[in-house]
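Continuing the series of single-chain predictions for the mutant panel. This is the parent chain; the variants come on the following pages.
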Amino acid sequence: MRALLQRVSTAHVDIAGERVDAINRGLLIFLGIAPHDTAADADWLAAKITTLRIFDDAGHEMNLSVRDIAGQLLIISQFTLYARTRKGTRPSWNGAARPEIALPLYETFLRACASAIDRPVASGRFGANMHVSLVNDGPITLLLDSHQRD
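Parent structure:
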């Protein structure tokens, strides 16, 4: 499971011109799911993301987590995080899980994140064509992979 995190001041997702969800200070998370991912990957990634100390404390040091600042999460499914681009000029999506595998794991990840921060999370709609807008704060952007835990 891969997650691209962006620390944001604000972020929102629109589908067909309609605002679906929005957050203020927190993290925008693009989540990619591979065929071999499990609920354990979702749980590990949620715990890691919600405890990463990437928000400033009073001394302007990155010592606080999204949980510490009572920040918000916006989670967007993003199968393209598993694109393969080594051959040719057209990406291959074979590294991403099929929807029947990915959707239940996406929902597991949403629940794990909500539990970790003890409040609901915002999300897009799995499989939809979404327009995501954000104001990156920092900018701080990180890529995490549940299969590279070292």
